[in-house]
Amino acid sequence: MLRLKKRAIVMLCIVFSTVTGGCGGTELENKNFPLAVLVEAQDHQYRICYLAQNLSQVANERSDGDNMTAASATGSTYYETQKAFEKNNRCQLDMSHTKVVVFHKNFIKNGELDLFLDTVRSENTFARNTLVYFMDSSMEKMAELNSGLEIPFGSYLEQMTENEQDIHEKAVVTLGSLLNEQANAGRILLIPVLKAENGMPAVYEYEVLCNFREAGRIDTKAAQVYYLLAEQLQQMDLHLEADEQVHLSNISCSRDFILTGKKVTQQLTLKAEARRITGSAGQKEIEQMLQATVDKVCRTGMEDLQIDLSDSYQYLPMYAPEIYRIYQNRPEEYLYNLDYQIRVQIRIV
Questions:
Q1: How far apart are CA 296 and CA 301, in angstroms?
Q2: Are strands 100-104 and 131-135 parallel, antiparallel or unpaired?
Q3: CA-CA distances (angstroms) from residue 284 to 246, 281, 289, 346, 347?
């Protein structure tokens, strides 16, 4: 609630600064401040929905989903669509307070993401920390969720991300992350995919971008392993059996590389403290379960998606420069010759 009031104060400051800066109130009324932007593309035709707040209701501290306006536009490019929206609605879009951009899955499948980011970079309309999500449902279906939320859709996703305390902040994908990766492709990004669950948006899968290209989907458990190996996971729950559950914390991951001929073996050493939630699992049982879980996710990623979920290629220049010199600019050959060796050390607390 405090965050919502702060946001209301910020928006009121915008009102005050605009009026006192010599602009009439009618100019402010002609501005549109989207908190969320939903984007689709089909046959190189854009459809964009802007979810904006009614400023008069924000001023009255009404910050629920009912004070949102949802308006859409179409065009052959993002720039054209934005200008068509402003013309048709007689307003000026201001994305300085946009919390999130949600792309439909076909947006990346049709290769439109590069062009969108080129426009964002040249026009500088969005803040770099704007959150990025994907969605499988239509933007109309996603926009309808506003009516069932206590706070606006964009703010809800922002709070949902902030409340994900297990994942390190640097793991969150933003427009800035995408712009950096577009310019210097070389790492894996996981973009959360939304679905409607009990009238609210929820993450159920992750879209994997590898070298800034679509690589496929993984579930939330596989995503946890990716974050674990990237040392971006603070803690996690591990299920051994139905009645055996432990909580892992103080997780760390170190890696070494061994070259045998052309074969590269990546030795991953995981350390963590374990607290039993249910059951009486011993140290060895927990170590074996975590080892099997990580090994399965890594090998499934290689077999099903042809990607390395340990993202080890980016670590070669620092940890194994001699191997990097061999496979420099040859990531596909490196992937073909890569194998894993997982070691786990658990201390029960």
A1: 8
A2: parallel
A3: 13, 8, 9, 8, 10
Contact present, 159 and 151 (Cβ < 8 Å): yes
pLDDT bucket at 14, cuts 50 / 70 / 90 = very low
Instruction: Tell me which residue has tokens 């052959």.
Output: 76
Torsion of Cα atoms, 137 then 143 then 145 then 146, to 10° = 170
Residue-wise burial string across 204-214, b where 16 or more C-beta atoms lie within 10 A, e elsewhere: ebbbbbbebee
Dihedral of CA 276/277/280/286: which sign?
negative
Q: Is the pLDDT of residue 58 over 90?
A: no
- Using CA atoms, how far apart are residues 240 and 278, in angstroms rounded to an integer? 10
Please state, in angstroms and rounded to a whole number, the distance separating the CA atoms of residues 27 and 125. 19
Pinpoint the alpha helices (H) of the chain.
2-20, 25-29, 55-59, 78-89, 105-109, 113-123, 139-143, 153-162, 175-183, 220-229, 283-300, 316-319, 321-327, 331-336
Cβ of 329: how many Cβ atoms within 10 Å? 6
pTM, to two decimals:
0.85
| Poorest-pLDDT segment among 155-159, 185-189, 245-249, 305-309 | 185-189
Residues 316 and 323: beta-carbon distance below 8 Å: yes
Q: Is residue 63 pLDDT above 60, yes or no?
A: no
Q: How many CB atoms lie within 10 A of CB 332?
A: 9
Segment 85-94 mean pLDDT: 89
Residue 324 CA to residue 320 CA, distance in Å, equals: 6
Quick one: DSSP state of residue 148?
G
Q: Which two tokens stand for residue 122?
A: 């040249």
Coil, strand or helix: which one is 124? Answer: coil
C-beta contacts of 310-313 below 8 A and 24+ residues apart: 310/226, 310/229, 310/255, 310/266, 310/268, 310/340, 311/187, 311/188, 311/226, 311/229, 311/230, 312/255, 312/257, 312/266, 312/338, 313/186
Please report how many Cα atoms fall inside a 13 Å half-sphere around the Cα of residue 233, on the Cβ side: 23
- What letter represents residue 119's amino acid? T
